[in-house]
Design brief:
With about 400 residues, the protein is an alpha/beta fold. The protein has helices at about 5-15, 25-30, 40-45, 60-70, 75-80, 90, 100-115, 120-130, 140-150, 170-175, 180-190, 205-210, 215-230, 240-250, 265-270, 275-285, 300, 305-315, 340-345, 345-360, 370-385, 395-400; strands spanning about 165-170, 195, 235-240, 260-265, 290-295, 320-325, 365-370, 390-395. The protein has 22 helices and eight strands. The strands form two sheets. It has a four-stranded parallel β-sheet with strand order 2-1-3-4. Strand 3, helix 14 (about 240-250) and strand 4 form a beta-alpha-beta unit. Helix 20 (about 345-360) crosses helix 21 (about 370-385). It is globular and about 75 Å long.
């Protein structure tokens, strides 16, 4: 029996007992876990490890155990699914160990070999993405028109152009459960006469599939979207979702294109300019001083860059009659990321409650953020802790309401 025959026999046995087959690049990623010093600093910052009842070993255990026992990856599914992928562990790690990258790799391998382990709470969204191109299906135009009667922002007609400087990509959530963000952003763009367009035929950016480790589905989904964006000859893709921003920036780095991805915060700072924004806001400013605190979304804070925090703060601080009080946990994960919100809603809520208690100490009347998932989960935390007056709002809505 020749070498090739022996090799095929080995692969046959490996597949039969559902052991993961790793590429050389994947083995290289696993090897990076050997850099872990076992110091435990990451455990002090991990948001999930702050929850007493959470059965989560933490980033240190994942680092030390995975490199030794990767063949037992199937036993790690619940552990890796309870990570929010916030990235704070890597941020504080003396060795810069990319734990979140390894977690996505483990998710990928588990779902390749044992897809049945994915619970229905998550599987139904994956099915939707495969069949419709959306993680959460957007409302129809008729449904949005009905909902717009109840929104507290100005509503402007959808704009579709053959070509435009800017493509506004709202993402799945702002097109379904949080359409107020969608409408508010259109209002802002119209206010500043931005040459923008929506996409007539679009799809999810693939970020949910990416963080689940479903690389093929993620690539297929985002490629369809980028193709549609390219047809508009746009220079900028404008987003209002932190996850979409981080994912599209990451993907477009590998494309031969001049398209720039910008979150609304970036666009207001870099293109509209604060002076122009405050001139309009002065005419339509809040009548009384409003105290706000800021939640910095992890996908912008750590996965795009720290400059996003500065942009966010400068933007809010420049608004007339707005006082910013920073929270001690402003940069901490709210528990809404990494699919945790739908995989383990209870655990996600416990993280949000920690944030809610800290936000209440600021004395603010509003928590401003820039991510639909963060809005949803922070408001869950505030409601669960009995807070009736403090609510989280997306920055787009806060600005658009001042135009009324």
């Amino acid at each position: 029996m020749g070498f090739e025959s022996y090799f095929e026999k080995v692969l046959e046995v490996v597949r039969s007992i559902e052991l993961p087959i790793l590429s050389s690049d994947e083995w290289e990623q696993i090897g990076l876990l050997e850099k872990c010093l076992n110091c435990g600093i990451c455990t002090m910052f991990c948001p999930i490890m702050q929850i007493p009842f959470a059965t989560y070993p933490g980033p240190r255990s994942i680092s030390t155990e995975t490199s030794r026992h990767f063949t037992e990856f199937k036993l790690m599914f619940d552990e890796v699914m309870k990570c929010t992928l916030c990235g704070e562990c890597r941020e504080v790690c003396p060795q810069n160990v990319p734990v979140t990258n390894i977690i996505k790799l483990i998710r990928k391998k588990i779902l390749e070999y044992v897809p049945s382990v994915l619970p229905f709470s998550v599987a139904k969204y994956v099915k939707s993405l495969r069949e419709t191109g959306f993680f959460t299906s957007p409302m129809s135009k008729e449904e949005r028109e009905e909902m717009c009667e109840f929104l507290d922002v100005l509503v402007v007609p959808d704009r579709y152009r053959r070509e435009a400087d800017v493509v506004y990509f709202p993402g799945c959530q702002a097109s379904s459960t949080l359409i107020e963000i969608f409408e508010a952003t259109k209002t802002i763009l119209e206010k500043f006469n931005v040459n923008y367009t929506l996409l007539e035929d679009w799809s999810c950016c693939g970020y949910p599939a990416h963080i689940l480790g479903m690389d093929e589905l993620a690539e297929e989904t985002v490629n369809k979207l980028i193709s549609k964006i390219g047809e508009k000859k746009a220079k900028t893709v404008l987003t209002t979702c932190a996850g979409c921003t981080a994912n599209l920036k990451r993907v477009l780095e590998g494309y031969d294109t001049n398209i720039t991805v910008k979150h609304l915060i970036e666009y207001l700072i870099e293109d509209i300019k604060l002076d122009n924004l405050t001139k309009v806001m002065c005419k339509h400013s809040l009548k009384e001083e409003t105290t706000v605190t800021i939640h910095y979304p992890c996908e912008l804070n750590r996965h795009v860059g720290k400059y996003m925090n500065d942009y966010f703060y400068d933007l809010i601080a420049s608004l007339p009659n707005v006082k910013v009080v920073e929270s001690k946990m402003g940069e901490k994960c709210c528990g809404g990321g990494g699919i945790l919100l739908i995989y383990d809603s209870t655990l996600s809520l416990e993280v949000a409650k920690l944030k809610a208690r800290d936000f209440k100490l600021t004395g603010a009347s509003t928590v401003l953020t820039a991510c639909p998932s963060c809005v949803v989960n922070i408001n869950r935390g505030l409601a669960e802790t009995g807070e009736k007056n403090l609510r989280a709002k997306d920055i787009s809505i806060f600005i658009a309401r001042s135009f009324k």
